[in-house]
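We close this part of the discussion by returning to an individual protein. The sequence in question and its C-alpha cells are set out directly beneath this paragraph:
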Amino acid sequence: MTATTHAPAETDYEIVIGLEVHTQLLTHSKMFCPCAADYADDAPNSHVCMICMGMPGVLPVVNQQAVEYTLMTGLALHCSIPELSKFDRKNYFYPDLPKGYQISQFDLPFCQDGYLEVEVEGALKRIGVTRAHLEEDTGRLLHRTDAYGTGFSLVDLNRAGIPLLEIVSEPDMRTAEEARLYMQKLRSILVYLGVSSGRMEEGSLRCDANISVRPRGQKKLGTKTEIKNMNSFRAVQRALEFEAARQIEVLRAGGRIIQETRGWVEAKGITVSQRTKEEANDYRYFPEPDLPPVHITRAWIEEIRAKMPELPDARRERFISDYGLSPYDAAVLTDDRAWADFFETTVASVTTGDPTTRAKSVANWVTGDLARLLNAHGQEIVTSKLTPAGLAGLVNALDAGTISGKQAKELLERAFATGEQPADIIAREGIAQVSDVGALETVARDIIAANPKAVEDYHKGKGAAVQFLIGQVMRQTKGSAKPDIIQPILVRLLDALKG
C-alpha cells in the first residue's frame, strides 16, 4: 500500500485507538540512583554509576520527587490514587537495558481510572486514562558506520535510569485527529505542571499508539498493532491514518491482522513490521525485591495538590472572564504555559486603555506579529530576546500616540532581534510621531508644490489624490507624521488653492 492512502471519513469499519505516552520527568537525579538526570549535550556514558549500569549487588533507592510528580499528574488527570503501591521487575533483554530487566509497575500503579477531556468539533469528548505508572528509562543505541561501510552500534547509558512516567489511555479514540488532540492536551498539562519539558523531538515525550479496526457496530475489539517511532503530533496523526487504512485494506481483501509492533517511517509515510507483540506474561513480572511498597497518605496527597499550578482549562476560562478575550484567543494563549505567562506579565505592565482593551491589544501582538517572528526564526517564547516589559513599552507608546502602527511593527522587529527596549530606541533615535501642526503644514505645502498632478486630480473630485498626498507626507517624515492630523491640513491647503 502507498503512503498516500488514508482511511475514508465514512467507512463500514470503526477505528479504535489507545495511546501509551511516556514522558521523562524533570527531576534533578535519576529514578534509583544519585546520577544527574540532565544529560543533554554531555559525553556518552558520563552520567552513570554502579546502580544505573546494573552492576551486581547494588541497591536502588526511590526518587521521592519522581513519585510526587507522578501523583501530581494523576491528580491533574482525575485519577484515583491507592494508599499502597509497589514497583515490579519487567524482564526482557535488550542491549540498552543493562540489568536485563526494567524496574516498572504492574498491578498496583500509583494512579488509575482517570480521564482527560478534549474538544472535538466543538464538543467535549472524555477519554479514559487507564493508569499512570512510574518506571525507569532505558539507555540509547547509537548506530554508526565505519570507514569500510560496516554498521555497528554503541550503547550510551546516560539516559538509563531517568524517571519515566507512562500514561496509558483507554481505547476511546476513534480517529487519528482525536489521538493528536489527546496528545496535545496531555502535553500541555504535563508542561503546566512542570513535570516534563514536553519536547517530542528530543525524546523526552514519546508515544506508542495501539490501533485496531472492526466492522461498525461490532462490540468485540479487532486485533491491534502497536506503532512506535513517532516524534511529533503530526507523525502520530499520519501514522494512525496510514495504519488504519492498511488494516482496513487487509480485511477487505480477506486477510487477517497480525498482532505486532510496527515502526513509523517518517520519510516514506508508512508503518513497517518490526516484531511480534509481547504479552504481559512474556515479561515475567514479579514484585521488585529490593524496594519496599510505597504508602501514600491522604495528607501527602493534599500537600501535593496544594503545590499544583492553575491548569490550562481553568486558565483559559479565566482569560475569557477576566480579560474579555475570545475563546479562540484564550485557547491559543493558554495552550502553552510560557505563552500564557508572557501574556499576563505583559498585560500587567501596560498602563494605557481599559483592562479589556489592553488585554486584547497584547493578545493581538503576541499571537500575531510576535508568533510570526518566533516561527520565522525557529525560537521559543521563553528564549526570545523580546521581554514582556519590552512589548508592554511598545503597546504603551502606540496607545499614547507616540508612534504609529507602522513604526510599532518596525520597533518590534528591532527589539526582537536585539533585545533592546523599544522605549530606549524611541528616545535614542527620536522616533516619535510628529503632531506639531505648524511643522506638518510646512511639509504639506512642500508636498503639494511638488505634486501638481495630484492637486489637479483633487480639484476634479478624485478623493484618492488626498490619500496619495498623505502617503507622500508619511514618506517625507519617515512615517512619523500622524495621519489623522495630516489629512485636514492637506484638505485645508488644497481647498485654499481653488480660489
The chain has three domains: 13-300, 312-429, 437-498. The longest strand covers residues 123-136. The first helix runs from residue 64 to 76.
